[in-house]
Amino acid sequence: MGVKVKGVKQVANNINHLIDSFEGRRTVRAIYSALYYIGIESAVKVPVDTSTLLNSQFRDVTTLGTRIIGKIGYSVKYAAAVHEAKGIHLGTKTPRPVKPGQKPGSRGNIWDKTGEPKFLEKPAEDARAKIHEIIAREMSL
Predict the structure, then answer these.
(1) φ/ψ of residue 52, rounded to 5
(2) What's the pTM value of the predicted model, to 2 decimals?
(3) Distance between CA atoms of residues 3 and 48, nearest Å
(4) Backbone φ, ψ for residue 123 (5° rounding)
(5) Are 136 and 36 in contact (CB under 8 A)?
């Protein structure tokens, strides 16, 4: 006489779901770690006047079906214009324009020594090998 056990299929499905959720969490953590690293590298290249641009950095990870999408960027309206600027004043020590009531030279130089055009794109490309390493490490934990 066979024994009938109820719920085995549900338990198996729940275990599979639990394993999938751990894998998903690991992947999301890996993406966040990679974005965090890109953000640090990018922050060093952002031109700083009032720090508004620098402080507007954001990271976002979303799931779309089986895809996990990571985004990093800067949210102020002028971020894209600064990112795509030609950088003609890079390294020339050209002072920023003075606003009424400010002392000349009080705002630093256009494209100070730390700021660069493509301040998000270049660090992401330069860090490609490190990003692969970060993702591999996070996925193996």
Answers:
(1) -65, -45
(2) 0.74
(3) 73
(4) -60, -35
(5) no
